[in-house]
Amino acid sequence: MATQDFRPEKKISIFYPPQRVLMGPGPSDTHSRILSAMARPTLGHLDPVFVDMMEELKSLMRYAFQTNNLLTFPVSGPGSVGMEMCFVNMIEPGDKVIVCRNGVFGGRMIENVERHGGVAVVVDDKWGEPVDPQKVEDTLKNNPDTKILAFVHAETSTGVQSDAKTLSDLAKRYNCLTIMDTVTSLGGTPIYIDGWGIDAVYSGSQKCLSCPPGLSPVSFSERVVNLVKNRKHKVQSWFMDINLLLGYWGSSRTYHHTAPTNSLVGLHEALLMLYEEGLEHSWARHQRNHKALKAGLQTMGIEYVVAEPYRLPQLNAVHIPVGVDDKEVRRRLLADFNLEIGAGLGDFAGKVWRFGLMGNSSRVENVIFCLNALETVLSNMGMKVERGAAEVAAYQTYAANTMTV
């Protein structure tokens, strides 16, 4: 048989990505310290030196989540894998789960419940509004056989934050377990897993931790561990079965899968940087930059989707001005300024922009750069804006909001 030529038609050379300023809903800008950490020599995933690093990683993660849960570790996969790990381990066929939906990611929770044989009871709230605790309590009363209450703490598609403590208190009152999505909130806004009594939580490495995508920090209470150990049926997923992962992330270090060692070293560095800065300082920094961005956007007549008490500082969802071409603005920002902002998802597609101020992207210079770039693009497209006003408003806000943590 003649040898076929499978060589690509065009010449392929080394890929050098452009240097972007990432101010969308994620990923955020990766700090040079993290990139440098990921470039260190690769170790085997059972190497004793690497195992020591894993213990530090778990400790740092417990700090970030504010928990003493022993089963706190990063899943090899993005936040969506962390989400599925919670549902696949905690749901058995026929289990009733109340899911709060006020955006895209509450909808994904419903999908997970149904795919794993559970019965989803949906509590809907308007996009851009927080989960209504009264609706949740009414639903719990009407469904006394509910096993789990699931909700999104920080809804990435809308920029709204819900009251996690109140929702968790309701779940405990009605003898339910909780699953909470903190993909966008971890590191950027207060989270107290133990203080709130959350049972299962998942996040992502690429948002306020500013690590490249591909890892999902998770944490499970003892109630969840006991639940999974006493399941009637095997966990549907072999890879995400907590019973098996306990062997690798526990004390025995039993081989489970080849963990992404360099990525885990990068996450270790990211969490170490969060620890060095201090959680309270990180939360305050995100809030301060949010206020400055808001002041600048308001000079252009751009208004927020979410009411002020419920806004996420790290995910700023705003209405697109009437008559402005959404795609063209984002195209020009990327082409002319190497600046990425986020489009709307689902019901908000074409109606909102999402400005991310996450982790390493939440910096004064990024806020000022973004406001000046947006002013330029909108002005060039014929919208009346007062050039330079956004920067002035932002700096005035910074002057009035010094960090005092």
From TrEMBL:
Pfam families: Aminotran_5 (PF00266). Residues 42-312 form the Aminotransferase class V domain. Keywords: Aminotransferase, Pyridoxal phosphate, Pyruvate, Transferase. It comes from the Bacteria. Its cofactor is pyridoxal 5'-phosphate. The keyword Repressor does not apply. Signal peptide: none annotated. GO terms for biological process: glycine biosynthetic process, by transamination of glyoxylate. Gene3D superfamilies: Aspartate Aminotransferase, domain 1, Type I PLP-dependent aspartate aminotransferase-like (Major domain). GO terms for molecular function: alanine-glyoxylate transaminase activity; L-serine-pyruvate transaminase activity. The modification N6-(pyridoxal phosphate)lysine is found at K207. Substrate binds at R354. Belongs to the class-V pyridoxal-phosphate-dependent aminotransferase family. PANTHER family: ALANINE--GLYOXYLATE AMINOTRANSFERASE (PTHR21152:SF40), AMINOTRANSFERASE CLASS V (PTHR21152). This is Alanine--glyoxylate aminotransferase.
